[in-house]
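Retro notes
What went well: the complex prediction finally ran end to end.
Inputs used:
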Amino acid sequence: MTKVVKPAFLTVLGLLWLAPVYLLIANAAKLPIDYSSSTVWKPAFGTALFDNMRDVWDRADLSSSVLSTAIYSVTGPLTGVLIGACVGFAIVALRLRHGFWWFVFVFGGTVFPLQMILMPLFVGYADTGLYDTRLGLILVYSVISVPFSAFVMRNFFSGIAHHVFEAAVVDGATTWRIFWRIYLPMSKSALVAIFILQATFIWNDLLLGLTLSQSDDVRPIMPALTSLQSTYGGSAMPVVLAGGLLVSLPTVALFLATQRIFSRGLALGQF
Amino acid sequence: MAPGVLIVAVLLYLPFLWTTYLSFTRYRGLGSPEWIGLDNYQAMFSDPALLTSLRNTALWVAGTIIVPVGIGLLIAVLTYNMRFGAWFRLPFLIPYAISGVAVGVIWSFILQSNGALSQALDAFGLPGAESRWLLDAPLNTFVMIGAAAWQASGVNALLFVIGLQSIPKEPVEAAKVDGASGWRMFRSILWPMLRPLTTVVVGLSIVASLKTFDVVYVMTQGGPGRSSETLAITMYRETFVQSEYGQGGAVSVVLTVVTLAASIAYLRRQLSERRAL
Amino acid sequence: MTDRSTMTRFALAGLTAGALLLAACGGDDGNGDDGDANAPGTSNGEARDSGTLKFYTDKAAWEPQFDRVSDASEEQVGWDLDFTGYSDADAYSAFIKQSFRTREKPTLFTWHTGDALAELVDEGMVAPTSDIWAEAIASGDIPADLEQYYTYDGEQYCVPLNVAYWVLYYNKHVFADHGLEAPQTWDDLMHIADTLAAEGIPAFYQTNILFSFVWFQTLLAGSDPDLYEALGTGEASYTDPGVVAVMEQWGDMIEAGYFSDPGLADDPQVLLNNGDVAMLNFGTFFTGSLNELGMVSGEDYDLFVIPNVDPSLDRTSLIVESGPLCAAQEADDRDQALDYLTWWVGAEAQTEWANARGDVSFNPNAEIRDERLAALGEEAGTDEIRLVERYFEATPQPVLTAALDGFGAFVTSPGDPMPILETIQAEADAYWATQ
């Protein structure tokens, strides 16, 4: 009985979840002149989707920002994940003194409303020469990723029995080696999850990129894309949607590609 | 770890200290800030719109802990040990991968009066097609919580799945031998052992919901007539729209203190109870 | 200057390894030029006669048009623009204000007249342009009427980026289908709205976000333009019977079904094109959006100046909006920026700009290719018309914010306007008390 009910329920719920995605694709594939809010559910056929995408690509000049955004979305979360894992490891495995408060200190980084730290960051960046440099953006994106990954890793590591650590110490392994050879490999799925979530966040970031950069080859892709939407006459709805869809392709692909890691069997059940 | 902490301190804490300083001043973005003590805080607490803002923020916190966390947990438990589970989870993850620009546009035309949602309700003969989803309070806050849940549920599910997969096999097998299954299995084995990741998901949800900004800003900008404003929107409005940096700073300090207090209270309980286990 | 750049060099030196790596990643052919462009005129104090000026605007969607003008200016005066666009006006204004504290100052930037510009002038952030104005008014390149919006304590600052007149665009097919013609009087207009309402078509577009002030502005300026102007200067109260009457009239029009749902997320140009609304009350900058959708002026859509609500007024009120283009006072290449502004107001630049935008120009000597707009531009210069500053610029910021919220609530649920007006007036009292 449950064998049928479970997949059926998940399918129905999944379809419900995909309904807005359907709307996105259907309307991104309409010619601007054909779009009307009274017929949003109507499917569209033809090549308008690609025309709209090409329109976005040329108009928002996305080609110059794709490369830098890709660099940010890889280096940022990578550094963030590693630092976060270090923090989690130090607190849980090494039993750092006042670990909770260290943790709260790092976690506090997620608490500040992003909108409020933007302007001081901009002023600081402008005065140190980090403004409008790729390095500056990599730095801020790495830092932004640290608290989340520290949180997840701290709690994930706490699920690993401490005797694993003690046993390794008895075997004469150095702390670094334990971290690198035992803890990190055991947390593969968590690390990948953090990485894809943060990479997606950075890929989709608008505010930091907008405020901390200016030239075409440093600015990430989202600020370039928002020029489509503006009070003073942006592009037509289908073009905006096509643009949104186009820049979502890499992140959707990333999710698709990494799903296998989360399927059963790679867990650390053996410990 | 030291460089990690240091860099967080410089890039995130310094700007916040500056904002805190500004909250005791009058500053319009030009010239130099002028010290006025607690005036901004006084002005903030005497503004009647703050009440709406607090109420909406509370709705967001409650709604976010119940809806996307609940759905995420449900999906995770149903799929974590199932064939093709990852593929069944995928529809819930895709919304997170789609860029904010598209999500904002899609939801505003789903939720506009006579928009896609109303048309769908109408087509299935369901009631509610006449609702002005985004125009009437508090309905607008509820439907926006729904839109946010659409994006967040998959992420929560993913985090729960990681937690479920790291649960050792032995207790689960033992419980199976004892004849536990379904709800009892979940209640007595999975739920307690899922604790570390539940803490992550709930902790992050509390923080995120207190800071709710993007969805509301895209859909209603806090309107009509400030009826769907959250604290983060109030803060943005004071700072960026009104250029009252001090006033916005005061809201932001209060928001931060509340968020920090809520998360410390929650984490302390969760993390220290666990240590006792 | 010295220690700033030493500091920078120090910071950069410390980060060389990373920077090199990045340069390697991003090093395509165009990079050399861009690197130079980021610091125009800073390396040596000498005036250069060509190069790139850093330009910031909150009108990100206008990038293609700015690019065209930039190409023209490079050809004609040797300077082009390094464009950075924001699409959120609030984030933009915070960014520009903060940038004056840093060495990343914009050279040229767009802004808003009224309160917003006064603030920058008070702090000495924008370069005076009195010479440019004197010359341009003498040569007829800028109408003298515009000068008041750019004058503070007898000096002018910035030059007009554009002007836009607020008119009613209408869908010609919808009008033709119902046997309607462009109105001559307010009564005609109300008759049109009635006819359409009977067919279930909302005559006018309205929204509760940002542009919620539009119909308030139209109704009040068309009923009592003196009162409208007095509101902006704090000499009249929002609870004045004249204002209350206008709100009540507005409420009646909403109740009568003249307006579209205020929460529609669809683009207004799409609504007009589909015939979901018959008329749009917008500035002439909107022509570009209609043309982009493939609508043809004179065939698919047309426009008319909104007749006065009160027919006894001797001149027709026409709302005008003018956005400034400014040069930063402390920018290293201020002189070049001022030269650029001199070029900008000239007929050649304006012909290029206005036609790229598909809009009117403030410069009567510019050749506007769109006949309808050209005629409107001429009409606006005659004695029949009284130009009235747009509400958005005419109202001080705190009052404006309260008013936009109030109007947004009113169009959503019209009712007794008094509580809303009282809230706005309370903000106004607080503001004018500090002035």
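What we learned: Chain A has a mean pLDDT of 86.
What to try next: split runs per interface for comparison.
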